[in-house]
Each structure stands twice: as C-alpha cells, then as structure tokens.
C-alpha cells in the first residue's frame, strides 16, 4: 500500500509539472515568436518481487513479478519548427524570419539566439531588440570592395557617422540627345542654339557649362558646338577665373577646355537688302546701286553710301576680324554664300547614310561620336567629362529644337556624378542586407543581419526574454553564422512572427491533465483508506 501511495504522489507531481507547462504556453499565447512546449511522461522504476525463470524439461518458464513505483517527467520538448502566425506592424524594423534559423543577439557578454525580430535603432545607432536592448549581430561592409565581409559577427552600428552621408562623385559622362531642327531660328542665328550641362565636381558642388550650336552649312546639316561659359551655382564664371589665373584670353581658355581653333566653311545668307553683283567684291543694294569692296576698311561703298560686311553678309564679332573677301563664294541660289570662319570648339557632321543613318556621323574628327570637356584643367576637384553626341539627330521638326545635354550615359546609370547625400531612409531586404537611401539618389549597402542554424534547434536552452542559449545537445555556434538565403529562408520586413501556441490543443491537454491529477489523488485517498482499515484491525 505504501508503494501505491508514493505512485500516486509521483503522479500528482508529474501532472502538476505538465500543468505548469500548459499554463506557461497559454500565458504566452500573444508573446512574439514564443515556441510552445509539450511534456512527455516516463515510468520511474520497477521493484522485482521475483525474477523470471526459464523453461525446463518438466515445466514452463515463469515471468518476473514486477511492481511499478510511479511516473516522472520524461522530457519537455520545444515545438520550435512550427511557425507562428504573421502579424503586420508596419514598422520596417520588425522582421519575421523563416525556417529553423535564429537571429543572433548579444547581451554584452555572450551571443544568444532569438526568433523575435522586434528591433529598433538605439541611441548609439546600433540595431537592437526592443524588449531588452540586446545588440543585433551581423556582418560589416568591406570598405575596399563595398561588399559584405562574412567574418565573425559583430554589432550592426547602422547609424554611425560614416553612414549619415553618401560621398559625392564627379560627373564623367554626358549624353546629347534629341532633335536639332534645321530651320530653327536659334540654331541659324549668330549666337546659336544654347545647350546647358549641369554637372558635379568631386566635392559634390554643382556647375553649369553652356554651349552654342551654330549652323556651318544648313544644306549639308553641318554644325559647330562651341563652349561659351562655365558657371558655379551662384552664377560666378569659372571660365573667366581660369583664364585670369593662367593669363589667358577667353578664347584661349575655351580652346584649352573644349576643342582647339578650327577653320570651317560656314554658310551665310546675304541680307535681303543686297544681291550678288557678279562676284564677291561687287554687290547691289536695294536701290540697285553697285557697290565694291574696300579691302582697307572691310566695307562696301560707292562713295555715297557705305555698308559693313556685317550689314551685307551677317558676319559678327571675331568673324569680322578674320573676314577675307577672297574666301566668299556663291553657293546654290544667289542669296547663299560660303565663308571660311574660325571656331573654337568642334564640328558636328550629320550622317545621311552610314552605319547609323539619321544621327550625327562624327563630332570633331571622323570616327568620333564623343568629345571631352577638359575640366581637370581647372582644378583637381574636377574630372574630364566625355560628351556623347551619337544619339542626337537632325531633321525638320516644325522649328522645334529638342536637343539637350544630360549628365551620365544614355541609360543614366554611370558617370552622372552626385552631390553629397544625406541619409533619408533605411531598408532591410529579404536576405537581411540593410541599405541606406540618400537624397543624392544613392542607395548604399550598410551591413547584413546574419542568422544561426543548429543541428538540433529543440536542444537550445530557453533563457526568457525570447532568447535561447546553446547546449551540448543543440550544436555549437561557430561565431560567423550564415546568410538566411543559404537554406531557402528569408526575412520579411514590417511583420512579426507570433506565438505558435494552439489553444485548442492546450485546453484539451489541460482536461486530460486535470483528470490524470484527479485519478492520482484517488490513489492516495484509497491507499489511505486501506491503511485506515489496517490500523482499525486492533480495536
């Protein structure tokens, strides 16, 4: 009877243990990433009343006579592989992790492991857990390559000083695209059609280079591209300062930065008030007076009226100084003339048929589709800018000229340059990589959250605070971890994994546990009654 008493006691204790586990599960039904536990019972031991005997020639064998001495808790198992439901939070630092992997966190003395991905950026700029401030561990960016260096995990100091800004870049490429209309008034004017290029130096400061596109030969769609000025964001002329600092004229400065002095044959239309008088030296005005050219004064006169070459041929500025009447020839109709002119820039030649018909055949010299703006001549903070004209074209477009210069290559991916960028946002991607977004358009890799995987995750020791520690039966952590995508997992941002407690299962277990406890209490009361009867034998 004493054996039954102690069996009943062990049953009460064991069922109480199971009830404790059930109570803890239900208490944590809304705990982030909580993993429920279950209890398995085991027999304690058996007392042998007699041993087993083998069969003989005359009689059979007899089984051993054993009496059990109760029950004990065989094991408590963590249901760690069953995921909990997903809860949407909208907080980008709330992360749900899939599979059997764990986030790695550090409490200041050791690395621990958790499924709860409720994180935030603390006052030191570190990624940490909201519940207890443990630092989230991961991999850093290699400053040499810009890629993740999968070394021993360390604290992810996302908001450090270096990550607050994105370094500027100097512009190195520019693309001229659009339509140059052959009849556009600006293109055919003395000042030409204005092209502007906004660009950056290596310090992130913004500048503007201005160019003029002028007609050389309208019939042959032949044009010139000439640099007119370079200014900073305040409108100050960097070109003039460069010329003054190097004791250069404005034209010499332009030649050093954009093309050399080039002689071209430019088409001019004679003013409508004049007409061809037989050769270049003889013209007639609207009053039908015949005028001849005076070489000394570069004028047309008949001793009664005098006209300048600007009045007659439309040449201006430096073109007047280099005007040579011997180079003027009649072209096409009587109103068109050709004049050799000196430009400082590049000749832009249209490709009527060739490899890329409809675009400009070359700029500067045959075979070239790009030329350089030699900004490095001004200072070390600049880089030379290669300007590509191969995608621009020329045709009649209703007098609408859409020619434009934009920094970067045609796809606007490379060579655009950037100002100094300020951090505007952070994002965690599915592979755990953390990227920063900057107001200069840059997106930079700042680190990667590493995960830990164990051979037996159920063997981890629960510590509270949603954390686990390794044990001899869980497998060791190598200090490095792995990429979550290595086993097909991922991280989801803005959501959390909830508890995997199944209340229907827990309530059912609670009922069977209650009945088991009641039955074991009956063993004790019945054994007590038997002892009472035994004591009452002597009255």
Question: How would you characterize this protein structure?
Answer:
There is one protein chain. With 539 residues, this protein is of the alpha+beta class. The chain has three domains: 2-48 and 65-79 and 513-535, no CATH class; 86-166 and 421-497, no CATH class; 173-270 and 335-407, Tick-borne Encephalitis virus Glycoprotein, domain 1 (Sandwich). It is 16% helix and 38% strand. The strands form nine sheets. Strands 7, 8, 11, 12, 13, 31, 32, 33, 34, 35 and 36 form an eleven-stranded antiparallel beta sheet that branches. The longest helix is centred in the C-terminal third of the chain and has 33 residues, at 503-535. The mean pLDDT is 88.
Between the first and last Cα atoms, what is the distance in angstroms? 21 Å
Total number of strands: 38
Residue stretches low in confidence (pLDDT < 50, at least 5 long) are none
Whole-number tally of structural domains: 3
Strand content: 35-45%
Give the CATH architecture of the largest domain: Sandwich
Helix content: 10-25%
Shape: rod-shaped
């Amino acid at each position: 009877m004493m054996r039954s008493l102690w069996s009943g006691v062990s049953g009460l204790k064991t069922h109480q243990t199971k009830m404790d586990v059930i109570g803890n599960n239900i208490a944590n039904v809304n705990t982030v990433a909580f993993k429920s536990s279950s209890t398995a019972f085991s027999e304690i031991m058996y007392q042998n009343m007699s041993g087993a005997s083998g069969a003989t020639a005359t009689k059979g064998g007899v089984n051993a006579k054993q009496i059990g001495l109760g029950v004990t808790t065989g094991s408590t198992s963590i249901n760690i592989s069953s995921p909990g439901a997903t809860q949407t939070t909208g907080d980008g630092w709330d992360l749900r992790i899939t599979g059997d992997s764990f986030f790695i966190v550090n409490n200041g003395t050791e690395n621990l492991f958790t499924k709860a991905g409720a994180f935030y950026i603390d006052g030191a700029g570190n990624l940490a857990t909201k519940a207890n401030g443990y630092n989230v561990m991961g991999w850093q960016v290699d400053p040499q390559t810009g890629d993740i260096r999968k070394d021993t995990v360390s604290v992810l100091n996302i908001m450090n000083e270096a990550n607050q800004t994105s370094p500027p870049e100097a512009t190195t490429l520019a693309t001229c695209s659009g339509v140059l209309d052959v009849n556009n008034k600006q293109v055919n004017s003395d000042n030409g059609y204005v092209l502007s290029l906004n660009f950056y130096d290596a310090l992130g400061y913004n500048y503007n280079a201005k160019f003029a596109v002028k007609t050389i030969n309208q019939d042959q769609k032949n044009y010139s591209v000439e640099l007119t000025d370079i200014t900073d964001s305040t409108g100050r002329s960097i070109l003039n300062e460069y010329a003054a600092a190097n004791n250069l004229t404005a034209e010499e400065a332009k030649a050093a930065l954009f093309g050399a002095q080039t002689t071209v044959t430019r088409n001019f239309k004679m003013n409508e008030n004049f007409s061809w008088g037989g050769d270049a030296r003889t013209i007639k005005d609207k009053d039908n007076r015949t005028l001849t050219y005076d070489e000394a004064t570069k004028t047309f006169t008949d001793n009664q009226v005098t006209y300048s070459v600007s009045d007659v041929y439309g040449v201006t500025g430096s073109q007047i100084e280099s005007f040579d009447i011997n180079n003027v020839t009649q072209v096409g109709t009587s109103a068109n003339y050709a004049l050799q002119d000196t430009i400082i820039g590049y000749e832009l030649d249209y490709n009527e048929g060739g490899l890329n018909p409809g675009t400009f055949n070359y700029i500067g010299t045959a075979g070239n589709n790009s030329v350089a703006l030699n900004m490095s001549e001004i200072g070390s903070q600049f880089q030379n800018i290669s300007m590509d004209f191969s995608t621009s074209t020329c045709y009649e477009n209703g007098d609408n000229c859409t020619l434009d210069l934009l920094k970067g290559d045609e796809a606007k991916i490379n060579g655009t340059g950037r100002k100094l960028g300020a951090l505007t946002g952070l994002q965690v991607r599915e592979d755990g990589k953390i990227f920063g977004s900057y107001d200069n358009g840059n997106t930079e890799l700042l680190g990667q959250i590493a995960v830990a995987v164990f051979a037996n995750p159920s063997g981890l020791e629960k510590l509270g605070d949603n954390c686990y520690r390794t044990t001899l039966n869980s497998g060791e952590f190598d200090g490095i971890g792995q990429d979550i995508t290595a086993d097909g997992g991922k991280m989801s941002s803005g959501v959390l994994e909830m508890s995997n407690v199944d209340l229907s299962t827990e309530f059912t277990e609670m009922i069977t546990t209650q009945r088991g406890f009641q039955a074991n209490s009956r063993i004790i009361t019945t054994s007590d009654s038997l002892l009472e009867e035994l004591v009452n034998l002597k009255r």
